[in-house]
């Protein structure tokens, strides 16, 4: 088994977020290195890092310059995410640390349905008032007339962002006999059977259901605010499984409270990355009082199948990187001996 680093030491991988880690992923890593799995806080992680060549994290840890400075031996960080705001990429690059992620792995990501399915689960739960009805039964009630919902068939579904998730959600809408249209300013190869709206404003004005599937960046932060919400038809609903920063959560909460829109279902909130945290997030607070607002804790991609596939994919990616590193180090040593 190839297990030697450049310094002749055994390669070591630290998995700092190992809860329910995939056995298949672990086996792939153990082919090339010794694997340690420990749930560590920041201080413990800083103390442990000097002894490792590779680090595996999810999103709990913020890997910044200070942590990287504590890890002179570190050669790679692996994170099974597309979003990398929890890692200081510039600091990693300056220190020669490779960051391995799902960013750009489009072929693999196209086969992942979890977030699109969760989008539809949220929409159905909101439209049919499922959480409130189930809670009533748990309280011993049985009143079917108290929970009359609304059907999706014939409603106008507006999709913002027609990437891999947005297009899958659009197909679900077609299967439910909805009128589906979308807006995406960047996509060029538009599907022939999906209506392309020329502007975001025209999409908003013709959407009974608005669902959002764009990344969080300078172009999309605050994309849906009070002005945009005011363009929605009366009684529309909003679904967001993209990023909290894309939508003004306080505005959404106000529009639901006023009855201007009928409801909102989200898997992401601004408070996830804000100073106050999720406990003070406007949508989270509103969801405690209103059945018309549903919030789930960013579980869109967290299915047993998708997590296992993703961890195994990233483990193979990290193992391949380490194998290449071993080979390059061996060639370097042979060159030094000549």
Give structural attributes:
single chain; 338 residues; alpha/beta; Rossmann fold; 2 domains; seven-stranded parallel β-sheet; 13 helices; 12 strands; elongated; disordered N terminus
Characterization of the model:
The protein has 13 helices and 12 strands. By secondary structure, the chain is an alpha/beta fold. It has 2 domains: 131 residues, Rossmann fold (3-Layer(aba) Sandwich), CATH 3.40.50; 183 residues, NAD(P)-binding Rossmann-like Domain (Rossmann fold), CATH 3.40.50.720. A 7-stranded parallel sheet has the order 8-7-6-9-10-11-12, with helices on both faces. Strands 2-1-3-4-5 form a 5-stranded parallel sheet. Helix 1 runs parallel beside helix 13 and helix 6 crosses helix 8. It is elongated, with a radius of gyration of 23 Å. The N terminus is likely disordered.
> Could you say which overall geometry the principal axes of the C-alpha atoms support?
elongated
Radius of gyration: 23 Å
Q: Output the structural class.
A: alpha/beta
CATH architecture assignment name of the largest domain: 3-Layer(aba) Sandwich
Instruction: Report the order of strands and helices.
Output: EHEHEHEHEHHHEHEEHEHEHEHEH
Q: What is the helix tally?
A: 13
Number of self-contained structural domains: 2
- Count all strands and give the number: 12
Q: Can you give the helix content as a percent range?
A: 25-40%
CATH structural class of the largest domain: Alpha Beta
């Amino acid at each position: 088994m190839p297990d030697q680093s450049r310094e002749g030491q055994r390669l070591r991988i630290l998995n700092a977020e190992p809860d329910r880690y995939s056995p298949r992923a672990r086996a792939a890593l153990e082919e090339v290195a010794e694997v340690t799995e420990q749930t560590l806080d920041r201080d413990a992680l800083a103390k442990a890092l000097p002894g490792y060549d590779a680090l595996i994290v999810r999103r709990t840890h913020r890997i910044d310059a200070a942590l990287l400075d504590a890890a002179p031996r570190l050669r790679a960080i692996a994170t099974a995410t597309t979003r990398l705001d929890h890692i200081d990429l510039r600091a990693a690059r300056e220190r020669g640390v490779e960051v391995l992620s799902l960013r750009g792995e489009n072929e693999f990501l196209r086969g992942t349905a979890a977030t699109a399915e969760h989008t539809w689960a949220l929409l159905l739960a909101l439209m049919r008032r499922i959480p409130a009805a189930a809670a009533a039964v748990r309280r011993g009630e049985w009143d079917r007339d108290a929970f009359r919902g609304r059907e999706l068939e014939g409603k106008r579904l507006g999709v913002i962002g027609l990437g891999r998730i947005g297009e899958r959600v659009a197909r679900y809408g077609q299967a439910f006999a909805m009128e589906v249209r979308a807006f995406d300013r960047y996509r060029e190869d538009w599907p022939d059977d999906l209506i392309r709206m020329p502007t975001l404003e025209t999409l908003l004005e013709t959407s009974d259901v608005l669902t959002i599937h764009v990344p969080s960046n300078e172009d999309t932060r605050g994309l849906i605010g009070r002005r945009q919400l005011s363009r929605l038809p009366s009684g529309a609903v909003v679904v967001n499984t993209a990023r909290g920063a894309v939508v003004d959560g306080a505005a959404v909460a106000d529009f639901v409270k006023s009855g201007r829109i009928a409801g909102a279902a989200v898997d992401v909130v601004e408070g996830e990355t804000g100073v106050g945290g999720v406990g003070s997030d406007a949508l989270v607070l509103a969801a405690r009082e209103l059945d018309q607002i549903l919030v789930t804790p960013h579980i869109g991609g967290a299915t047993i199948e998708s997590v296992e596939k993703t961890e195994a994919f990233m483990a193979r990616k990290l193992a391949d990187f380490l194998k290449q590193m071993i080979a390059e180090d061996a060639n370097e040593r042979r060159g030094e001996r000549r």
